[in-house]
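RECORD TYPE: inverse folding
INPUT: structure tokens
STRUCTURE:
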């Protein structure tokens, strides 16, 4: 394997891991926002 192929493979792996981190970050953000809204609405019903 020469240097060019190795660099291409590394770049593709880096993009793949970046996509995974973006996906997980968006999911965590959505879950936390929805959880915060749900928690606020349930606290208003209790109080």
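DESIGNED SEQUENCE:
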């Amino acid at each position: 394997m020469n240097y060019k192929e190795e660099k291409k493979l590394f770049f593709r792996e880096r993009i793949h891991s970046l996509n995974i981190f973006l996906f997980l970050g968006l999911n965590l953000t959505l879950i936390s926002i929805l959880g915060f809204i749900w928690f606020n609405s349930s606290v208003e019903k209790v109080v």
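NOTES: Residues 9 and 16 are 11 Å apart (CA to CA).
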